[in-house]
Every structure is written in structure tokens, then in C-alpha cells.
Amino acid sequence: MIIAQISDTHLVLNNPDADQRKRDFELTVADINALDPAPDVIVHTGDIVHNGRQDEYALAVATLAKVRAPVYVLAGNKDNRANLRAAFSPWGCLAPGADFIQYTIEDHQVRLIALDTLSSHGNKGHFCAERIRRLLDLIDAETTKPIAVLTHHPPFEVMVGRERLHFETPEIMARLRQALQHSGRVVAVFSGHVHRAAEGRVGRIPAVVVPCIATTLRKGEYPAHMKRRPVYYLHRFDPAWGFATAARIVEARSSTATIRSDAI
Fold it and tell me: 231, 249 in Cβ contact below 8 A?
């Protein structure tokens, strides 16, 4: 199984870098379409747009409509749940009228569970008691397959950048971490939000953060030839050792850096 993970496209219509963000997204989609073998699924781990506006989501839908693999989306702190749901409900992954954008993808050898860490109070993540209950129910609904969990906010301490904790309180993050370790079947956590690459663990579960697709917002140091090249991740699953993650440089197909999940 191969998962292509993109995140933090931050599409916008009225910023000076709006065209660059759109171009970064379009180039990434084209690069994913050229992959051989193709990914089984594409996941966008949130901050699809920058202001949560319907016209921004219309642009996102038009861009993602060009991909050749199934696409699944999460809500980030810049997203608007109602507008995101209205834009992507026809794609089949989002239940209409649900309070949270939280669901499972059951069609592959690894179950994918998409979580909603959006807070109504600010940019940091939240995960209330109701979401914890639903997560545990989703985990326990099937007991034979390994699980990969998708979040916008990383549920571990990020050791690079100004902010180390990306949830509103350490207690909220601790409750989520405990729930993720509940069954022993969660084998990976894939997140966004930080706008830079990061690695960590949730107990024994390896966790990674993909850099943002929007190159004008990306954090970290990059060589000059990389500054306008988006980066996304390919997660390949093998039953013998779990997930191995490769960083994919758009328009630089011979240059990939591999991260073994068992080394994270």
C-alpha cells in the first residue's frame, strides 16, 4: 500500500503569493499523477485553504479533481468545517451534517482513520471528550488490520521551531496520545500543520510531519534550487516492518530522501 500525503496548501485568492500557492499545488498534483507505481490513496492533512472561503475550496476541488487516485481530506486550523464539507461531500468521504470531520478508510490492507483536531478558539489543536469516544469506537470497529491515523496537528512534542506543543494544553494532547495507544494496532501517525519536516513518537508509534506544499510558507532551510519546489511524502507499507516514508521533491524525480519508519 502506498499513501501520498500532502498538507498545508493554504490556497488563497487575494494574497501577493496566491498564484505561487496555486502553482505549487498544481505541480504537486501533476507529480503525483506521474508516479509509477501510483499511490493507492492521496491524503490532504489539512489547511487546504487559508481563509475557509467557498471560493477557495472551489479552487481546491478543481485542482484535486485532476488526480488519478482517491483523495481524502482533513480539517486544519485554517479550514472551515461547513464549507469544507460542502465542497468535498460529493467525493464520498465526508458524512453530511456530522459535527466533526472524522472517518475511516477501509478499502486497503491498512485502515486509515482521519481525525478532526480543529479548535474553535485558535490555531492550536483540540480533541474533546466526544472526539476521543468516537476515535475509540472507530479503532474498535475492526480488530484485524493495522491502523494509520491522520491528523492535522502533530500529537507529539516537535523539537524544531518556536512551538513544541501544537495542542491547546498538554493534557489534551496526552488524552489523544493515550487513545491512540489504546489498541496496540495503530502503527503510524501522519500529520501536517508545522510547515516543516518533523519526526516523533506516540509511545511506540512512529509519527511524522510532512512539510507544507505552499513553498512561500514553508519553514526550515532549503538550498536555492529547492526554494520553489514543493515536497510531499510517500508512505509505503510492508507487513514485515510497517511504513517507510520517502520525501518526494516535485520536479526533481531523481532526488528522494528515505526515512525508515523503524528509525524514527
Answer: yes
Closest-CA residue to 242 (of 196, 198, 189, 180): 189
One digit per residue, pLDDT tens: the chain, 264 residues? 999 999 999 999 999 999 999 999 999 999 999 999 999 999 999 999 999 999 999 999 999 999 999 999 999 999 999 999 999 988 877 766 678 999 999 999 999 999 999 998 889 999 999 999 999 999 999 999 999 999 999 999 999 988 899 999 999 999 999 999 999 999 999 999 999 999 999 999 999 999 999 999 999 988 888 889 999 999 999 999 899 999 999 975 433 443 333 333
Burial of 118 (0-12, 13-18, 19+ CB in 10 A): buried
Cis before 16 (ω within 30): no
Number of domains in the chain: 1
The CATH number of whichever domain residue 167 belongs to comes to 3.60.21.10
User: Which residues constitute the domain of residue 68?
Assistant: 2-263
Q: d(Cα 168, Cα 187) in Å, to the nearest integer?
A: 25
